[in-house]
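ok so I'm stuck.
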Amino acid sequence: MMKNAKPFDLRHVILCYNAAMVLANLAIATRVGYYAFVTGHYHIFLQGPDLSTRPTTMLLLQVSWWYLMLRLSECIETVFFVLRKKFNQVSGLHVFHHVSVAFCTYFYITYGGFSIACFETVFNSTVHVMMYAYYFLAALGPGIQKHLWWKKYLTRFQLVQFIVMIVRNCCLVYTLGMPYSSLPLFMLSQCVIFFVQFLSFYIRSYKSNMVRVIKCDGSSPDAHWKDEQVKAN
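replied:
not stuck anymore, here's the structure
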């Protein structure tokens, strides 16, 4: 449908979307962090399943469904890419990430494991706050984009996130025992896949030479375009 159509100008829509996602993820991170680790007294690193009906547990369950809705709402980004004809951004990493995170969240909520994943929820939502803040600033235009030198550090932080989650879920698999060790085992498999995919993206984006088209010195009337190997910024 979009093959022969002009790309939509969604700049203002995307600005509003990114701002909303910053606020939504910040709300999730603070609420889950407060209910789980302040009033709920959950263990930050080795929390097991909580199947009680305590008020704090019920509040966390409510927030967990909002977290799922938030992750499902991120699928609209694919629509933005298509409408803007940014088909290259609808990558395997993009699609797999959004689908698997939503499925993993639903899996944990349905089988009583959200208390186990509170640490990941807070950590991941915090990463998303920074990520969507970057997207918001980048959408303001080239004048702002040139100051966003910290993009690669954001990707590094995402990699650190997965390393921490891998270590944590390895510990949980060992300490929880069956049947609940199946939940962190599932999370562990997802984190390993994400880590490999994001590491591959990081290497391609920041460590490899990329071919770019740059303009030659215009002093000659025969100035032309040529390919040159340059470092990715």
